[in-house]
Amino acid sequence: MILRQTYAMLLDQYRELSARKLFWITLALSLLVVALYGSFGINERGLTFFHWQFDTSPFDSNRIEPSLLYKFIFANLAVPIWLTWIATILALISTASIIPDFIAGGSVELTLSKPIGRTRLLLTKFASGLLFVMLQVGAFAVASFLVIGIRGGDWEPRIFLSIPIVVVFFSYLFAFAVFFGLLTRSTLASLMLTALVWVLLFGVNLADGILVQQAEARRLEVAIYEQRLELRSNAALDTWRSQLESGLVEGDPENPPQGEALDAFNPLLAGVRSELEGRERAFEGQNKWANRIMLVKTVLPKTSETIGLLNRNLISLDELASFMPGDDDDEPVDVESFVQRRAEGGGRERIGGDTASQAVMNARVEERFRARTDFWVLGTSLGFEVVLLAICCLIFARRDF
Amino acid sequence: MSDTVSETTAADSNSSELALDLRGVAKTYKGRVQALRGIDLRVRRGEVFGLLGPNGAGKSTLVKIMMTVIRPTRCEGSMLGAPVGYRPALGRVGYLPEHHRFPGYLTGRQVVDHYGRLLNVPRIERRRRTDDLLDFVHMREWADQKVAKYSKGMRQRVGLAQALVADPDLVLLDEPTDGVDPLGRREIRDMLHALKERGKTVFLNSHLLSELEMVCDRVAILVKGLVASQGRIEDLTAGQSRYEVLLGGEPTTAADRAKSALTSRLAPDPETAHSFGRLGSGESVEWRDDRLWIATTDAEAVQPILDALRGAGVSIREFAPRKPSLEDLFMQALGGSPTDSPGADRPAKPSKSAPPRGHAAEEASR
Questions:
Q1: Contact (CB<8Å) B97/A109
Q2: Taking the CA atoms of chain B, what radius of gyration do you get in angstroms?
Q3: Cα B327–Cα B332–Cα B338 angle in degrees, nearest 5
Q4: DSSP state for residue B146 in the 8-state scheme
Q5: Which of B28, B68, B106, B172 should be substituted to probe chain A, the one whose Cβ sees the most A Cβ atoms within 10 Å?
Q6: How far is CA B347 from the centre of its chain?
Q7: B233: Cβ–Cβ under 8 A, 6 or more apart, which residues?
């Protein structure tokens, strides 16, 4: 009985969406993108596109398995660019009208007057929007699965992870579209406001990335200067001991001078100390902001991280490393020896200014981001969505039409 | 009025005979617009009931409250024995909203089928009824065309079909003939008669008296969110029926000549400005809208007046019985006069079904 009504609503929504040209245009574009994607290839000489051969050594099949190339393109180009930007914009344009059309005068009365609860009506409408995206991503995933299988020789079922991940990502935005659609009753207004929210989320994400990077750079600098201060202090202490032995200074060998008292025995010590203090203050300031943004992010839906889950789950870090030029001889980044090396030097430290320090910083940033678990990413985002939908249901249930 | 009261008492004693029993339904929108100010209505099972009122009187609001589309500020009473607003009961109610819009991408058949699904009509039943109903509303030929191609009248007929798909006991139709041409109106009227024969209770909203009087057993008049009067149309219009005489010549001279011909034959009527006097039986003879109004439906009683006019050489261009217009009924329900002329008074003989204002308010707020 409940199924019949739900089926009727979903069927109606499918009919409505498929009655529009945009539905078919989006689907056709999706398949075109997969076709293009399948036209790429890799052999022992480098990349190919249709019958064109590009000499892209060292990117050749000796270094990169064809299946890995496809997976990499899928997780790094197809999903984050095509599915999460272009296809999502098309999907939002298609589905932003669902709620305004549904609550339009003359049409909503017909549905509200049936023995179906309003909360159920709204949630079914919400689900029907997601169903649309599921169809589109589903077609895309199946086509990609075939391309990776046929062209890459690797039948990779994890490709289908993109369906739930993209649907969940879209659901964050669509919940906003539903909310604004209910409030404004206008497709255009709802679309614009949703786009604005998306841009804001993107901005928060960008700010988070920059602040975490800056905080980690300062943290490394603090570590380097702490180490350097220790090295220089030890050197000053050695100077003090030799001077004590030669009677140049007086003192208790059991109770050597500490802190600033050592400055007299090493001319560089005071400079290192004041640098350290400066970096500590900078780190505290930037880390405070990084933590604040993190708090904000905890509350908000995390669009980029959700899409990032696919990358995390599809390609391992080792596999990812084979795409980094010139990295194959490097040892895995060792932060301790890097800090030690830099501490022994004497120059002014600025992390991020050179490639070596960048690699270490990126490793630390990656570590910090990886500490944000799948559960945190999905749980807090879905939590936000549930609250937003609850507000939508409340508005919808209490409104007179 | 005594009729209405005794009806109410009878209804109270057996509420299962009532398809609708509304008490004190009120709705105040945000911004303190009072759409309904306490509606009392009783509709018996199997009757065709009309709710008559000007645009903005609150007719659609009342129907929407019954269909849970609008939340009432205050509402007691029942629909098909269940409290108003009890959602499962909506399965037994058919509804055709005003200005409805069916999705243009559906065919007529799909529209009926879709709402049948939402009403939980099982598939086999739904198929059979869809065919029957499309026949019933004369849409079989067009059933598989997209709604977007339909004329207003066709949409209205498909709307009627979807309202009937669950074989409801009660059908609420909000302005079903709105925008439909005269032939279409007649067809819809025939359908309503057929529904009544099938034992359905039909609740009809309209701002056209002519629409309602041909099909309704009883009507209520809604004015500014209050039921001004309710009862059988004949009763509501009885006191307002009259003969009108259109005289030849220029209206003011015609009026003077008629007045001089008639005043000596009529009993004086000092209360009314327009009155020439009263007939022996008490009905007033007045000059209104460039015509002579004789407040009686008895043709015999009018003959002496016509004789007197002709005797005085006044030519008669037209002589006909007239029923009151909707506007007359509204004005009467509001406690005003049949026309909007300043200083005009109420008809000489107050009708039993058209109470004066105070009474109406009392009835409505009870």
A1: yes
A2: 24
A3: 60
A4: B
A5: B68
A6: 21
A7: B50, B209, B212, B213, B216, B218, B219
State whether residue B164 is helix, strand or coil.
Answer: coil
Question: In B, which residues are within 8 Å of A16 by CB distance?
Answer: 103, 105
Contact A240/A256 with Cβ under 8 angstroms? yes
Question: Is the previous residue joined to B72 through a cis bond, with omega within 30 degrees of 0?
Answer: no
B67 CB neighbours in chain A (<8 A) are: 109, 112-113
Amino acid A18 reads S
CA distance B52 to chain A (A): 21
Q: Which residues touch A254 (CB under 8 Å, ≥6 apart)?
A: none
Tell whether A211 lies on the interface with B, counting CB pairs under 8 A: no
Q: What is the pTM of this model?
A: 0.80
Report how far apart the first and last C-alpha atoms of chain A are (Å, whole number).
26
Could you report the per-residue pLDDT of A224-270, keeping only the tens digit for each? Answer: 999 999 988 888 888 888 888 888 887 787 888 887 888 878 888 88
Please work out, in degrees rounded to the nearest 5, the angle formed at the alpha carbon of residue B221 by the alpha carbons of B220 and B226.
Answer: 105
Pull the structure tokens for residue B135: 């026949």
> 């993209």: which residue's tokens?
A166
ipTM: 0.78
Q: How far is B21 from chain A (nearest CA, A)?
A: 19
From chain B, the residues in CB contact with A115 under 8 A are 87-91, 119-120
Cβ–Cβ pairs < 8 A, chains A and B: 83
CA A399 to chain B, closest CA, distance in angstroms equals: 7
The tens digit of pLDDT for each residue in B252-304 reads: 888 888 888 888 788 887 666 677 888 877 788 888 878 888 888 888 888 88
